[in-house]
Amino acid sequence: MRIALFDSGIGGLTVLSHARRVLPSEEFLFFADRDHVPYGTKSVPAVRGYVREAFRFLVEKQGADAVVVACNTATSVAVDEMRRLYEVPIIGMEPAVKKALAQDGERRVLVTATPITINGEKLRRLVSAHDTHHLVDLLALPRLVEFAERREFVSPRVEEYLWNALAPYDLVHYSAVVLGCTHFNYFKDTLRRLLPKAVGFVDGNEGTVEELARRTGLCTMPAGTQMASCRFFESGRPVAGAEPLARIESYLARAARMEEIV
């Protein structure tokens, strides 16, 4: 089966890293819209236009049998329209609010995402449906996307940005930080140093891949060393050449390391 993963940039590689290891027999396409990243600070109509272009390329030109929108921002504003336009299974991502609240029903949960996701109706409905005890706080971290796109994961600037963003929250009263943007997973080592040990990470990557398998009738396997093949595209252009592919591999390697941090 030909499975496409789509993201505004390289955040979706954190989803791809997991998907290729638990679905090693499938064929993957990865589309990073590097021409328009970041999505989270742009207008909703603009993002919807970018998503339409990506779907035309992946489904109509590349023949994808299923599409994972590995971008919480794109999911929040455009996935419903894509499902009306295309008959292939389309799996979106949303911040794992329900999962985080289910783990601890007493302490608070901090949901981090891009501004579009934080301010969107989709997240408000999600929180309203599951946060019956009013434990959820929302925090936009737009600069993390910019840091990730230039491979600045561990630096004084990243640490200062996160420290200042988290300062208003008394984190000893929190059970989890929800990583509501796939780019944010790259910063788990830096976040781990800043957060109390009792605060865990929750993201939607594994659940998204499980939903992909369910919707397409595939069976996931325990993650191993074998990985599915993948072709990479940047805004519709094939990624070729040793240096660009090495850059992608460095992101995938970091994504795999970050997956081990809880």
Automatic annotation (TrEMBL):
Alphabetical keyword list: Cell shape, Cell wall biogenesis/degradation, Isomerase, Peptidoglycan synthesis
Record-level GO BP terms: cell wall organization; peptidoglycan biosynthetic process; regulation of cell shape
Binding residues annotated for substrate, in chain numbering: 7-8, 39-40, 72-73, 182-183
Molecular-function GO term, any one: glutamate racemase activity
Active-site residues from the entry: 71 (proton donor/acceptor), 181 (proton donor/acceptor)
SUPFAM superfamilies referenced in this protein's UniProt entry, alphabetically: Aspartate/glutamate racemase (SSF53681)
Domain of life: Bacteria
Pfam families (alphabetical): Asp_Glu_race (PF01177)
Reported function: Provides the (R)-glutamate required for cell wall biosynthesis.
UniProt-recorded name of the protein: Glutamate racemase
Organism the protein comes from: Selenomonas timonae
Name of the gene this protein is made from: murI
